[in-house]
Amino acid sequence: MFVELVYDKRNVEGLEGASEIILAELTKQVHQIFPDAEVRVKPMQANCLNSDTNKSDRENL
C-alpha cells in the first residue's frame, strides 16, 4: 500500500527542508493507521492525496 501527498510548493517557498518536514509528519500519522504503508510526498502546484487503498481505508486517512 502507498500513500502519496501532493502539496502546493508555493505554500512552503522559503522554508528549508519543507519536503522532509512534511514527509516526517505524514509518515508518523499514516503509520499509526497503516504501519506497513509506503509514504511519499511530491511538491507540485496542487493539493491532493493519492493512495491505492479501498474506499473505507481512504476515509481513515
What descriptive keywords fit this protein?
DinI-like_sf, DNA_damage-inducible_DinI-like, Protein Binding, DinI Protein, Chain A, three-stranded mixed β-sheet, 30% strand, 61 residues, DinI-like family protein, 36% helix, alpha+beta
How would you portray this structure in words?
InterPro entries: DinI-like_sf, DNA_damage-inducible_DinI-like. With 61 residues, this protein is of the alpha+beta class. It contains two helices and three strands, in the order E-H-E-E-H. A three-stranded mixed sheet has the order 2-1-3, covered by helices on one side. Strand 1 (2-8), helix 1 (18-33) and strand 2 (38-44) form a beta-alpha-beta unit. The longest helix is centred in the middle third of the chain and has 16 residues, at 18-33. It is globular and about 35 Å long.
Examine the coordinates and then state which fold CATH places here, giving the name of the CATH topology: Protein Binding, DinI Protein, Chain A
Give the overall pLDDT as a whole number: 88
- Anisotropy-based shape: globular
CATH-scheme architecture: 2-Layer Sandwich
Kindly report the name of the CATH homologous superfamily. DinI-like
CA gyration radius, whole angstroms: 12 Å
The fraction of residues in strands falls at 25-35%
Q: Structural class given helices, strands, pairing?
A: alpha+beta
- Oligomer state equals single chain
- Please give the count of helices: 2
C-alpha termini separation: 13 Å
Strand arrangement within the widest β-sheet reads 2-1-3
In CATH, what is the class? Alpha Beta
The portion of residues assigned to helices is 25-40%
Characterize the largest beta sheet: strand count, sense, and whether it forms a barrel. 3 strands, mixed
Q: Which H/E pattern describes the elements?
A: EHEEH
The count of strands amounts to 3
- The tally of structural domains comes to 1
Uncertain runs:
none
